[in-house]
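Hi Y.,

Following your request, here is the sequence exactly as I used it, all 159 residues.
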Amino acid sequence: MRVLVISDTHGYHENLDEVLSRERPYERVIHLGDIEGAQDYIESAAGCPVEAVRGNNDFFSDLPDEQIIELAGKRIFMTHGHYYYVSAGVEFLIREARGRDVDLVMFGHTHCPLVRQEGGLWVLNPGSLSYPRQDGHAPSYLIMEWEENGEPEIFLNFL
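Below is the corresponding structure, written out as tokens. Let me know if you'd prefer a different format.
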């Protein structure tokens, strides 16, 4: 399975369109919030199922605040992260993820990419395609690839 993970696009499509084109084929797109009204656009442009959660800037959105999905035998906890104080660190989010018995926890909000393993739990943030905040300020996203019930390979990519 090949999955594209993005976050914090904030309604801007130029970098999103480039990543969607560059990374094809993928079987699923995961968006971790701050879509800002562009959910229909993303679903149409992706050409595959899109899983998404609501971010702190997704006013009036019907998206869930968080969700747990299963892909290729792995349980994935998706959240934007602002309810878990991720701007101050990921410890609270990691405790929550462990309590939910997931294999991966994904969040956005900080606009800074993160790929880390904590005792078998993957902690992932793709960063932002529109307003990156890490050193160098390059727009970023994740690609995940894995076989059914295998271990994922996670690639952090920059535009």
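The chain has a mean pLDDT of 97.

Thanks again,
Q.
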